[in-house]
Write a structure and sequence with these properties.
The complex is a heterodimer of chains A (93) and B (557). Chain A contains 3 helices and 4 strands; from the N terminus they run E-H-E-E-H-E-H. With 93 residues, chain A is of the alpha+beta class. Chain A has a single domain, classed as 2-Layer Sandwich (Alpha-Beta Plaits). In chain A, strand 2 (30-38) and strand 3 (44-53) form a beta hairpin. The longest helix of chain A is centred in the last third of the chain and has 13 residues, at 80-92. Chain B has 557 residues and is an alpha/beta fold. Chain B folds into 3 domains: 3-162, Rossmann fold (3-Layer(aba) Sandwich), CATH 3.40.50.970; 184-342, Rossmann fold (3-Layer(aba) Sandwich); 356-526, Thiamin diphosphate (ThDP)-binding fold, Pyr/PP domains (Rossmann fold). In chain B, the strands form 4 sheets. Chain B has a 6-stranded parallel beta sheet with strand order 2-1-3-4-6-5, with helices on both faces. Chain B has a 6-stranded parallel beta sheet with strand order 9-8-7-10-11-12, sandwiched between helices. The chains are: A alpha+beta (93), B alpha/beta (557). Chains A and B meet through helix 1 and helix 2 of A and strand 5 of B.
Chain lengths: 93, 557
């Protein structure tokens, strides 16, 4: 299994997030974690998602890049702050 | 001006001459505006045919096809045609009416989330939420549909937006970006592999025709003298009668083409995507070959087969840059062309019944170089690919990716409207024709001289063939022996028709069909057990082609 995290920027437009999640599912990547926030200027959605699959990360990255409203796709180290928040939540439970 | 009136003006502004569609409640403002437009509207009898006709028009004419339907069932009926365009990268704009914005999300009459339904099968889509964004949406839809790797774009237009009166101005911002040239480094690396290769093969796909790279491709082949195998959509990139053309590869490809690919040391893939019907078992495909992959869509490179050298970008530039003489491949090319002669098609089949491959060969010889063939899906589709000669890919309209039965008749309608004086032939089967049979009425209404060759084996032939070969002859739901009388059906819709039952009558039947000035249907009876040969079985490597005589021997044992 290949597990990795993507940092995406997508224009705030009809169905923007659904499109990204749809491509992820159709290309057979499992979603493990997702955060999405509106950018400060309100025009974009910044998405971080961690996925896993048997397939190479580029097979997903290249498909997401093709989406008309996506302006940035990067494979990143998972956001540590987000990871800590998750860890804190699971301890709290 | 109302939004609907602006939409129609904007379509005119984009150069749209024909729209295929079907009216209904939510799209009525647009149909009202169409009355005052010079755009020709073709009223089909089922929305699926509107989308498929727009697809056929786009493939034949090289323009963006436009289809239109109302909300709800009108919109869902378009979906198969949109998916068909998506899978074969055909430029299309589909316009759907939608219930008024105040009713959206309330399960209103004829409300359906067509935006959501089509997400997986569009290149992009728009929901017009305000009248102000209409100009940009229309402009962007056409730009996206035709740019880069083309595809379908949906515009969902709520009825209140269509009725909104406002000042509209055309969106003139010309954002159509040039496709990037491939990197110099990739060209240098590709040329090194080409010069080192003794047994290279070019694997030609649909991207060559769709990327308007025919001239560059042919110059590339004439100069490098590399043998060419084609995908279903790549047929005609090099004329199929060309000395270096080895025929179609894959499941129903030629022995020569598949053997060349399986034994080559370098595979140069041009605008193709390693589809499973072309490659057979992927891990046994071209096992000794390094791969150079030329494509405009970098998501296709490395998707299924690693490319040693990806060449991403404009095919025309890439091919031009790779057009150099190669000194060392003559023996290999002679081997390939000699194999072509050894494995040439044999049209002397036993029996007195019509032999479909022979029929198509004769039809091709007589229909002329400007004819266009639109086929449906199944055995007849493969026979067309195998036995018709194509001088350019846009002569051959075939549903490759989606494999849509019912594509042929609407696609032929689209092609005939694009080229009113061309000989347009729909080759169909008794299964497929019933999927959009209602469009015979459209042929009549517009008096389109489409010629229909309907091969009738009283079965779902391709499925029957698979059940015979791979399911121990356990025939399940493939019998169509209760077909209607197709001649009478056609005649009842005003299309003259005649039946062909004997091989001796084929020649006069083709004459009669081609001489008819209007539409005509030839109902051609063929043997129920006629199969498409050769065939690569499911999950098998392209090295393991089954031939008719081999299977016959096996059965005899």
């Amino acid at each position: 299994m290949n597990k990795f995290t993507l940092q995406l920027r997508v224009k705030q437009s009809e169905g923007a997030l659904v499109r990204i999640l749809g491509v992820t599912r159709r290309r057979r990547f499992d979603l493990l974690h997702l955060t999405a926030d509106t950018s400060e200027d309100g025009h974009f959605l910044d998405v971080q998602m961690t996925v896993q699959a048997d397939r190479a990360e580029n097979t997903l990255v290249r498909q997401i890049e093709k989406l008309e409203d996506v302006s940035q796709v990067e494979v990143v180290e998972p956001d540590e702050a987000a990871a800590e928040r998750r860890a804190a939540r699971s301890t709290a439970r | 001006m109302k939004g609907a009136e602006f939409l129609v003006k904007a379509l005119e502004h984009e150069g749209v001459e024909i729209i295929f569609g079907y009216p209904g409640g939510a799209i009525m403002p647009v149909y009202d505006a169409l009355l005052d437009s010079k755009i020709r509207h073709i009223l089909v009898r089922h929305e699926q045919a509107a989308a498929l006709a727009a697809d056929g028009y786009a493939r034949a004419a090289g323009k963006v096809g436009v289809c239109m339907a109302t909300s709800g069932p009108g919109a869902t009926n378009l979906v198969t045609g949109i998916a068909n365009a998506y899978m074969d990268s055909v430029p299309m704009v589909a316009i759907t009416g939608q219930v008024a914005t105040s009713l959206m999300g309330t399960d209103a009459f004829q409300e359906v989330d067509i935006f959501g339904i089509t997400l997986p099968v569009v290149k992009h889509s728009f929901l017009a939420k305000t009248a102000a964004e209409l100009p940009r949406i229309v402009h962007e839809a056409f730009r996206i549909a035709r740019s880069g790797r083309p595809g379908p774009v949906l515009i969902d237009l709520p009825k209140d937006i269509a009725n909104t009166v406002a000042e509209y101005e055309f969106h003139e911002d010309d954002t159509s970006e040039e496709i990037a040239e491939p990197s110099k480094e990739s060209i240098t690396r590709a040329l090194t592999l080409m010069r080192d290769s003794r047994n290279p093969v070019v694997y030609a796909g649909g991207g060559i025709g769709m990327g308007n790279a025919l001239d560059e491709f042919r110059a590339f082949i004439e100069t490098t003298r590399i043998p060419v195998v084609a995908t279903l959509k790549g047929l005609g990139a090099l004329p199929t009668t060309h000395e270096f053309a080895l025929g179609m590869m894959g499941m129903h490809g030629t022995k020569t083409a598949n053997h060349a690919v399986q034994t080559c040391d370098l595979l140069i893939c041009v605008g193709a995507r390693f589809d499973d019907r072309a490659t057979g078992r992927l891990n046994a495909f071209a096992p000794n070959a390094k791969v150079i992959h030329l494509d405009v869509d970098r998501a296709e490179v490395g998707k299924l087969r690693r490319a040693d050298v990806p060449v991403i970008g404009n095919l025309r530039h890439a091919l031009k840059a790779l057009t150099w003489e190669l000194g060392n491949i003559e023996p290999w090319r002679r081997e390939c062309t000699a194999s072509k002669e050894t494995h040439a098609w044999d049209y002397a089949a036993p029996g007195a019944e019509v032999y479909a491959p022979g029929f198509l060969k004769s039809l091709s010889d007589r229909a002329g170089d400007d004819s266009i063939v639109a086929c449906d899906v199944g055995q007849h589709q493969m026979w067309v690919a195998q036995h018709f000669h194509f001088n350019r890919p846009s002569q051959h309209l075939s549903s490759g990716g989606l494999g849509t039965m019912g594509f042929g008749l609407p696609a032929a309608i689209g092609a005939q409207l694009a080229f009113p004086h061309a000989t347009v032939i729909n080759v169909s089967g008794d299964g497929s024709i019933m999927m959009n049979l209602q469009e015979l009425a459209t042929l009549r209404r517009y008096d389109l001289p489409v010629k229909i060759v309907l091969f009738d084996n009283r079965a779902l032939g391709m499925v029957r063939q698979w059940q015979e070969l791979f399911h121990d002859k356990r025939y399940s739901e493939v019998d169509l022996s209760d077909n209607p009388d197709f001649c009478r059906v056609a005649e009842s819709m005003g299309i003259p028709a005649f039946r062909v039952e004997d091989r001796a009558d084929v020649s006069s039947a083709i004459d009669r069909l081609l001489a008819e000035p209007g539409p005509m249907l030839a109902h051609v009876l063929i043997h129920q057990e006629a199969n498409v040969w050769p065939i690569v079985g499911p999950g098998r490597s392209n090295s393991e082609m089954l031939h008719q005589h081999e299977v016959a021997r096996e059965v005899a044992r």
